[in-house]
């Protein structure tokens, strides 16, 4: 069998290095997922930083290493390009991959560092044959697939509201928080409800480093608190249904169903169901879709560049809303 040839642009944390974090679910990186898939291999990589290239060579035994994606694609025949570089480089790298006729591009989130650049990326894809997956990986995880099923099948009745929290680090500016990690949350709101978040009001606190965002996804009210100042990470959604509740976050999943109350006669209370997940398969499922796209099997990615652009539009809306 001829294996599918993958190349990674950006040999830093999500490109390769996080695979060495013993606590993370594996695969946790682009190199890790390619390495583990039976039909693919890491054919090449590029990074302007020579120490990253040397580290990558030592870790994965790959010798076809270049300073730029243009050089790499001039020299190597590549089927799937993984773009794992800072957002301000994404437009140039997508352009290079598209111009070299790459069939599938996996693009790290956020799509770009501005709305204008993200729109250019969308038109680059429309004008050529390349298919782009944006790595909003929770769309591919077992937990969020399960939640979507519960919503569509109305297992616990109607979804009535979502309350969400995102705290990532002590010092990041609100704008940065929304671009770096808020993009995952905002993308999930759209993925779960079927409608992009329409922000109605944004109340900033703590000298503008944190915000309470209120809005709607279609008819579903959303409250979203985000900001800096914490010494711990929180990425959490609390979904309330007519007859149930789901609390999901990084590393935990709790599902509750309305049942006859053990505490009060003639009332119902939320009782925890046993449902749990030992792993999410977030990276592997995303990559399986990329392989299927390369083979021509799947037509519309679960996480498309249009979805990624839509998340950035919402972020810009939030930043303009008072
Ligand atoms: N999906 C996720 O959960 C997740 C997690 C972490 C990071 N990310 C995203 O991945 C991207 C990279 O983040 P990171 O944390 O790995 O950053 P990083 O700084 O650890 O790695 C980025 C690497 O890209 C290299 N680079 C810069 N410009 C380049 C270019 N033009 N061509 C090739 N390489 C270039 C840098 O030298 C660096 O080694 C960002 O868009 C980030 O938001 C996503």
Distance between the termini: 57 Å
Helix/strand class: alpha/beta
Rg calculated over all Cα atoms: 21 Å
Helix content: 25-40%
Quote the average pLDDT. Answer: 97
Model regions low in confidence, pLDDT < 50 over at least 5 residues: none
Main sheet: strands, sense, barrel: 8 strands, mixed
**Ligands bound, unique:** nicotinamide-adenine-dinucleotide
The number of strands is 14
CATH hierarchy: architecture of the largest domain: 3-Layer(aba) Sandwich
Quote the CATH topology of the largest domain.
Answer: Rossmann fold
How would you sum up the global shape?
Answer: globular
- Strand order, largest beta sheet: 8-9-10-7-11-12-13-14
Tally of alpha and pi helices: 9
User: Roughly what fraction of the amino acids lie in strands?
Assistant: 25-35%
One letter per element, helices H and strands E, the order comes to EHEHEHEHEHEHEHEEEEEEEHH
Would you identify the CATH H-level superfamily of the largest domain? NAD(P)-binding Rossmann-like Domain
Characterise this structure.
With 322 residues, the protein is α/β, with parallel strands linked by helices. The protein folds into 2 domains: 4-136 and 286-299, NAD(P)-binding Rossmann-like Domain (Rossmann fold); 142-279, Dihydrodipicolinate Reductase, domain 2 (2-Layer Sandwich). The chain has 9 helices and 14 strands. The strands form 2 sheets. The protein has an 8-stranded mixed sheet with strand order 8-9-10-7-11-12-13-14, with helices on one face. The chain has a 6-stranded parallel sheet with strand order 3-2-1-4-5-6, with helices on both faces. Strand 12 and strand 13 form a beta hairpin. The radius of gyration is 21 Å and the shape is globular. Nicotinamide-adenine-dinucleotide binds at residues 9-15, 46-49, 52, 68-69, 84-87, 89, 93, 108-109, 135, 137, 180.
